[in-house]
Amino acid sequence: MDSLEEKIEVLQKISQELEPSFKERESLNEQVRAFANHFLENIETYPAYVEEDAVIEKLTFNSGKKTLKELLTNFNSEVVLKGIKPASGKHLGYVPGGGIYTAALGDFLASVTNEYAGMYYASPGAVTMENELLNWMKKIFNFPKEAVGNLTSGGSIANLIALTAARDKYQIKNDKIQKSVIYLSPQAHHCIHKALRIIGLEDIKVRLLELDEFSKINTAKLAKIIQEDLKNGLNPFMVIASAGTTDTGAIDPLSTIGEITKNFNLWYHIDAAYGGFFILTESKKKLFKGIELADSLVIDPHKGLFLPYGIGAVLIKDKKAVFHSHHYTADYMQDANTVAAQINPADVSPELTKHYRGLRMWLPLQIHGIEP
Amino acid sequence: MDSLEEKIEVLQKISQELEPSFKERESLNEQVRAFANHFLENIETYPAYVEEDAVIEKLTFNSGKKTLKELLTNFNSEVVLKGIKPASGKHLGYVPGGGIYTAALGDFLASVTNEYAGMYYASPGAVTMENELLNWMKKIFNFPKEAVGNLTSGGSIANLIALTAARDKYQIKNDKIQKSVIYLSPQAHHCIHKALRIIGLEDIKVRLLELDEFSKINTAKLAKIIQEDLKNGLNPFMVIASAGTTDTGAIDPLSTIGEITKNFNLWYHIDAAYGGFFILTESKKKLFKGIELADSLVIDPHKGLFLPYGIGAVLIKDKKAVFHSHHYTADYMQDANTVAAQINPADVSPELTKHYRGLRMWLPLQIHGIEP
């Protein structure tokens, strides 16, 4: 029998493969870079959509090893050349889909360094970077600096976090659920309805509001229906508006809805995933008047900032409401240390570990700047 | 006033910056590659942990533009050189944290091509790839091929998806919540408790079970307490076991707990985020006997497969239970088309858009193989 030392030596050699040498890395990198360059130089010629099933056999794997060359060939034929090409200029549906090269470099660096961006103590720099990005968004939407926020994987989780905070603030749970009422437009994104089911509000009353001729919420009717619900012993608790609906682009009357929610003491949620970043343009800025009245706001950098899929954002004014479900309360000591310095992303999200997605946003924003 | 054509021409020139030329890309790429190489060649010399706050001013940004060189300098001093270095060999706490170079190349490619991996029709290849990875995991854990699964951002969202399915299958909602009971070890990961709050089960009864001398659930007592709860008119509905707890590495008696859950008709959830992939080793395989009895199972490729943070997985046998909250049911027509071919990730997850995280797992698994 080999000694333990000898065994370790053998295993070390085998595991070495997972740490390629400089030369091996350069060779892998060169192939991937050539692939990316070929893709970017030819993207204009790709059709925006190819309706064709992927060949499963080319994407499955068994225990054996394959060369990168072979894998890239299959990736190209089955993944890249089929379905939608969101990075292509021909893709006119919805918002454009990515293509920011510096974001891809950010993702590469994030994976190489593998920072843990969930808790401040583990990576003060990564967490500070993500919080600074959130601070910037607070500034452009006129949210107070004390608001908390999170970089999510997209608009759906961002909406889920906001709705959870609203639910917790108003303690909508158990037998109170069926009497409680949420008001929103029939044009609200379906992820709102999905989030409600996920967070246990499947049986809440959802009032689909009447729209005006521009597909915006009719606010006169909104106040009336809330009053009626109150009279009937129901429990109105939240109005959800959209700043840019997916189907029509309509921005609901944000200021008026803000007044109504204040009058009736309701949570005011605005889903601006689709349209929010148009606030950065001179000509459309004024359409967002009143967005600062929201208790919670969702915006999607992977839409309005053209970043690759996988980065949304939520801003919420009431930190206590957010922490109720997301903060791990038994962890007193460790958190006491860090709360003063920076908010932990893990306390504002269902995620504990997560992709360090701040870098893919920070790098392009810094390199290209906000203004032209 | 300029004509519209002239205005567009001016804007086109400005926006060109977002699409760097081949030469510009190569220059950016070269700097990032040099940074990554320097990091990987020196990681052995970095301390495993540096307790030092990040300098906010170096990470914040205003509207101006900065050079990549300047940004990488700040990234290095504030992010890379502070906090935990999980990719370092000196980082002995918990499981090792990443450092698989081919995963980083996968993330780079995913961001450049920006495939939308949420729905089959948008990227049949990306979705097929993710489903094939899930099929592989079904195979190694002896789950049926009909089980559904999802590549999540980590163990927390994976657990949340599983618990949501359990809740929906047993219709634990409204006034039924406070009478219902979940059984788990005091060693269960805190993300389970967090997930319960998020999905609206804050007031459910949670029984922390007695452990034996090896920190495993005492199964004799488990059966007894379930019977007592039933006698007292309560509603036992789920047992949560761990296959590798974070603190002690204990694997609960999976087979025996499986029998008990079948006898009492309870949902059986196993959190194997921490220990699951040890099933791939000859010597530890037998410890996982019974894991195939679970109704839902969580495993974390960013732990046992050393992938970068941001990739977990969940497998669930009852597709209907999962779809209840996550599938967007009004979308009949489009889904009818695709259900036959492949499950849409968006129907098994709170996420709609998300990072195309399959590629960072597929590329390394294929290149390095499963067996040494």
TrEMBL record, chains A, B:
Swiss-Prot/TrEMBL cofactor(s): pyridoxal 5'-phosphate
Membrane recorded as keyword: no
An example Gene Ontology biological process: carboxylic acid metabolic process
Pfam families on file: Pyridoxal_deC
Enzyme Commission number(s) of this protein: 4.1.1.28
Alphabetic keyword roster: Decarboxylase, Lyase, Pyridoxal phosphate
GO cellular component, one term: cytoplasm
Gene Ontology MF term list: aromatic-L-amino-acid decarboxylase activity; pyridoxal phosphate binding
UniProt xrefs under InterPro entries: Aromatic_deC, PyrdxlP-dep_de-COase, PyrdxlP-dep_Trfase, PyrdxlP-dep_Trfase_major
Name of the protein in its database record: Aromatic-L-amino-acid decarboxylase
